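Repro:
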Amino acid sequence: MSRVAGYALALDMTARDFQEEAKKNGAPWSLAKGFDTALPVSRFLSTEELKDPTAIKMWCKVNEEMRQDGTTTDMVFSIPYLISYISQYFTLHPGDLVLTGTPAGVGPVQPGDVISAGLGDLLTMKFNVAQRE
């Protein structure tokens, strides 16, 4: 963990219409996961600001309705385990992001929705869902 520079929120969005079409055709999901603005990322917290990432609350609201609410203790795999595991298969470089998964509650959003998310009371992010062009 000495190589971890910090922590952030990243919302791994999916274009479900593209995903369903790709599934139906046995095609890759690349368009469903790699569209512009598919991964909003918050500002970063240094390891000094977030000294213990093992028990931090994570939450996400859509239009002020709580959709996801959990802590990092709820994760199936710990952050150190995930980093150790993936580094056996991928070379990690300074600046790489490692996404760890999400609490239960993933659901659809629509243009005009407002998404807010946070890590405890240390960090919040907020953005509007826009129509894909």
